[in-house]
Amino acid sequence: MIQTYSVRVKKAFGFGLEASTQVGYMPSTTILIGGADVRMALLEGFRTGVAGIFPDVAVGAGVRTITGTEQLQLTTVGLDVQISKPFPLSGQSVLSPWIGYQYLWIYGDSGLIDTTPATDAVGYCQTTGPNVPGNPDPTKKSGNTQIYDGQPVCAGGSPIDFNNNVVFSPARLERQRIMFGIDYRYEMLSFRAEFITDLIAPADSQAGNGTITVPTGPNSSIVKTDKEVLAGVPRQWSMVLQLGVLF
User: Fold this and answer.
1) 196-217 pLDDT, tens per residue?
2) 239 contacts 195 by C-beta, under 8 angstroms
3) Region 42-57: what's the mean pLDDT?
4) Read out DSSP for the chain?
C-alpha cells in the first residue's frame, strides 16, 4: 500500500467551469507529485419542483506526474464523467453523493537502474586499480600484446557489477475505473471521501495489440502482447480523504 499527502487549490469560474492544481509527496521517498485538473458541469441539476430529481452531470480531465527520482518517470492522464446530487441538511450543510467512470492512461519510462544496489562493486571485484601501464590486467592480451583499456583490474573477483545496470522498456498502460464517494459541506468546511477501483481487469483494459520485449535471461528475451504481460495482474484500488475550506 502506497500513501501520498497533497495540498490542493481549486478555483471555480462561471458557467460550471472549475480548475485545480495539486502538489504532494510520498513519505519515506524523494518523490514529489504534481498535477492539475479541469472540470465542466454539463448539467447543474434543478433544485426545486419536479425537475429537482435531476442530478448534476460533469466531465473532467486531469494529469499527474512525479519528480525526485532518476530511475522512473511516471505520468498519468485521465478523462472522467461524474453524476452527483446535493442534498441540503438543516440549512447549514450539504451532503452530495456521487459516482463516476474514468479512463486512465499511464506512461512509465525507465531511467538507468542498478539491478544490484546492495552490492559493493569495488569489493566484489577486489580491484587493484585501472588497467593502465604499470598495472596491467593479465587477462587482457591480444597474442603477446598487452591491452590497456582503463577498466578496473580485479584480483580474483569480477568487474561485472561496475556496469550491472539496465533500462526497462517503456510502459504504456490503460485502465478503466469506477469511482464513487460523498462530499459533505458545513458552512465553509468541506470533507470528501472517495473510493476508486478498476472496473474491468487490467489486461482487458488494454486497447490495440501492443507488444513488449520481456527479458528471460542475461542474453535472451521473448516478445509478448500487452494483454499477455498483464494477465493475472490484480485490480488496484485507491481511497482518498480530503479536508478543506471553501471561500
Assistant:
1) 999 999 999 988 777 787 777 7
2) yes
3) 78
4) ----EEEEEEEE-STTEEEEEEEEE-TTSS-EEEEEEEEEEEE----SSGGGGPPEEEEEEEEEEEES-SSEEEEEEEEEEEEE--EEETTTEEEEEEEEEEEEEEEEEE--EES-TTS-HHHHHTEEEESBTTB--TT-EETTEEP---PEEESSS-SGGGG-EE-PPPEEEEEEEEEEEEEEEETTEEEEEEEEEESS-HHHH--S--EEEEEEETTEEEEEEHHHHHTTPPPPEEEEEEEEE--
Distance in angstroms (rounded) separating the CA atoms of residues 220 and 213: 10
Residues pairing with 181 in the sheet = 98, 194
Answer yes or no: do 150 and 59 share one domain: no
CA–CA distance, 174 with 117 (Å, rounded to integer):
31
Residues 14 and 134 in one domain: no
Structure pTM? 0.82
Residue 132 sits in the same domain as residue 188? no
Boundaries of domain holding 130 = 121-163
- Identify whether residues 89 and 10 lie together within a single domain: yes
Same domain, 175 and 126: no
The set of cell numbers assigned to 37 is 485538473
Q: How many whole angstroms separate alpha carbon 61 and alpha carbon 241?
A: 20
Let me know whether 21 and 42 are in one domain: yes
Domain shared by 27 and 97, yes or no: yes
Under the banding of pLDDT at 50, 70 and 90, the label for residue 44 is confident
> Is the same domain home to 23 and 135?
no
